[in-house]
Design goal:
The protein is globular and about 40 Å long. The protein has a single domain (about 5-160), classed as Aminopeptidase. It is built from 4 helices and 7 strands, in the order E-H-H-E-E-E-H-E-H-E-E. The chain starts with 5 loop residues before the first strand and ends with a strand. By secondary structure, it is α+β, with helices and mostly antiparallel strands.
Amino acid sequence: MNTHITIRPATFDDLPAINRVIEAAVMTWNLPERVKRLTLPSYRYNEHDFEHLQMVVAIDPAGSIVGVASWEAAEPRDCPANSTGLLLHGLYVDPAAQRSGIGSALLMAAGQAAHDAGVDGLLVKAQADAVGFFSRCGMQPLAVEDSARHYSHRFWKSAISH
């Protein structure tokens, strides 16, 4: 893990840098270029997202934002039976900084937030390219019970075992 990374709460002033990281990360996904261009606006954050999302950023030693994670309360119907959780809304790392532990540190921050919130776990609805990452981080795949309602790649991690 990169020990020179600082994780801190995001601020409004961070939005341009956050959205640059998101754009760079999304553009690496294994999707047609047109699909990435058309969907990219829905991944960007704005000041209104701070009303319902908790958001943290990863800062490198030069002071640049190189990652972001955000979460909110999960819908009970999306969690495993009789569980409460936080939904990881997004986790993005600048492609130049990937595979250095930043994503893991951001996921740990979300897991700590779930623990601190007193919920049972952390729910992730993952983009296909991220399945390996979440598996390596110890998240457990959830069965797709209703393909019309659920993402194909859903993961869960107990808040007590982060």
